[in-house]
Amino acid sequence: MRSQRLLVAVIPHAANEALHLGSLLVQHGYLYPLRDPRRLELRPDETPYRFQVSLDWEQTETVDFYRREVECLRRALGRARVKSSTCFEAYLKFSSQHGPHDPIMSGCLPSNPWVTDDDAYWAMNAPSAAAPTRLRVEQWAFSFRELLEDPVGRAHFMDFLGKEFSAENLSFWEACEELRHGGQARVPALVDAVYQQFLAPGAARWVNIDSRTMEQTLAGLTQPHRHVLDDAQRHIYLLMKKGQGMHSFNSGLVTTSEAFARSRAGFGSSLVM
Amino acid sequence: MAADGLHENETLASLKSEAESLKGKLEEERAKLHDVELHQVAERVEALGQFVMKTRRTLKGHGNKVLCMDWCKDKRRLVSSSQDGKVIVWDSFTTNKEHAVTMPCTWVMACAYAPSGCAIACGGLDNKCSVYPLTFDKNENMAAKKKSVAMHTNYLSACSFTNSDMQILTASGDGTCALWDVESGQLLQSFHGHGADVLCLDLAPSETGNTFVSGGCDKKAMVWDMRSGQCVQAFETHESDINSVRYYPSGDAFASGSDDATCRLYDLRADREVAIYSKESIIFGASSVDFSLSGRLLFAGYNDYTINVWDVLKGSRVSILFGHENRVSTLRVSPDGTAFCSGSWDHTLRVWA
Question: What pTM does this model have?
Fold first, then answer.
């Protein structure tokens, strides 16, 4: 490296510090010695160097990076795709179904709190409201996910399952949710509790999972982790979602909604909605 | 070293060309099932009427650029973070400030409200994501109970609690995303694949699986399996950094906002970009996007200080909202869809309805 005179103040030991820093740059590949490339050090002589992006760093990073990209692309090619027209029909259906439930699109009754400064809308639609509105109950029939997402909808469904003697399915599903999204420290205890209550032979609230899934789940319990019940949970979820009970439950929602409306009217409200 | 170098270069070159060829094949496969454009199908849908949305609340109190905000599940509280290191919790209905904490770093780029409403998470140039329990004891110092959860090797750009207070998902300038156990700070899963800074993420409203989408400076939007850490789908059609990603309410698609001045819609089942929301007159980057409750409207905040409201199905702009006096940096629709909040470099937040 040819020395250059720079018009700056002289700092004691600066040359040593510079050499040290320079050596680090060479060792990490930012400066590449053109002669004798095996000696990774900065020498105060006429040795030429080339400045480059760190060779070692880029090599590892890039090889791994492209390997991952290739794997991801291979997986993507193996996916089943759906026709665009089918996907767009789904948007139209979702949009028309949910439009009346979208306060910005359709307004909300009695009023939008932000516009009128009256928070009655929030009081009426509190998470655990005793008498949910017609619009809210209507949404429980849109999809199983939306039913379970509403605490009142879920409680109502639990009651319904209780009458059908299959409430353990929903309780099991809830326990699995707790496992998946809960703290790591509780995983072993939670897995054991779920096993005792729902999966063990003769368990008090035994859930009806197909034998293959049950076998795989029980085998996995020896090494409990937060995803160990995923397959069983998915099975029970689909059982509830597509079960005979759903049709009966959804049909009953109209009556349910009317009952809630009557109870709201009974408390002196002049708005029946 | 010379012999090793050659070997490395061969593997690298062949991987690179394999990736290019696979990308080409993927584009061909994606094109095969694209039988119609969204705006064509949307011709059957009634056009939206006149749109009146105004600023209903202005939250003043930050001393510098507002960088991020998130709503509380109670539909009225929200948390916001700023370049000056301050994180504020507001009851935005009354505009009262309920909590405030000063972070040890400036540029708090990410903040999130816990599902229980009892804690907030935030971070930025400190490369960490920290959780603060919210206490109503006036004598207690919020900063005292701070818990450091996530540790990245570069700035924190986004964070979100998953379905509970116990897990946090983070995105970072170090090019990775990560899932953390809040109590122990343990890294549960990391997500590698972006080729540059990750700027945003959003969790899918999924039924049985657990996925999320991230966007980055590599112009890619990537969908991840939270269990395996693998990328399941990737989309590379933007021409610049992706600043914001948000799922369509059904979970079947997501929207993105980018420095290339466009917002785009990607369908996960069709596995392709299905709409572009842009106008020749819009030349500044979109910093943040969110859907109205039914997914019919897409609100997008831009670096030209405006908010554009897009008809998601027809692809047209429905409205343009003025009010902020500097870049809009963050935007979220409230949990019950009655309003949306925007944060800006003009130091304020606005709630619109």
Answer: 0.88
